[in-house]
Amino acid sequence: MASDAAAISALVVGAGALGSVYAWRLQESGARVTVVCRSNYAAVRDRGFRIKSEAFGEHTYRPSRVVASVDEAVADGSRYSCVVVCTKALPNLGDPSGDIGAALASPQTTVVLIQNGIGIEEPYRARYPRNPIASAVALIDVTQPAAGTIEHGSRTVLLAGLYRPEDARYDAAAGAATLGALSAAWCAGGIPCTVVDRVQGVRWAKLIWNASFNPISVLA
After folding, report:
1. Nearest to 124 by CA among 98, 102, 106, 105
2. 87-119 per-position pLDDT tens digit
3. φ, ψ at 65 (rounded to 5°)
């Protein structure tokens, strides 16, 4: 597994609570991981992520590289096999797809969206039609109470699949190969990651769960 993961060069955009855990376990499997931090950039640059996890114990995770922007991540000529987007999807506030363009110079780079929501893939598909897009649903309990300090429970499950693999504008076989390698690497790092054929059904199932569970949690 480690030798396969060593071929992965991942750019994780949005290394907050959720992104830090998936970046950490991917790097633990042998992948090279660059993280784009925002509000927690200075803390992570200086001392890494301090993670307290029921599943994996207490660790200080230092990514292969910490940057403040996607432009910085590619300024030295670095290229990535995948760009993993872990920011919140807020389509009512704008289109975030343009933020990762500098890292998608190659059509072989796969975009992986680990975000909640329905229809979040379309802005990326419209902007980057030659790049494979994978859609992923995360089942994870994690918070960031302070910059670079991560508190994680026991769940880390990922369910992922290619978005519109029938679209002839991109190389679906290459996207499937990258997604398969990522799945194997995450599994090797202790995160159950399953590649599914109908990922949109999984998205709707989680949306329905969130719609019922979240209001009950607030009221209780």
Report:
1. 98
2. 988 776 778 899 999 999 999 999 999 999 899
3. -155, 140
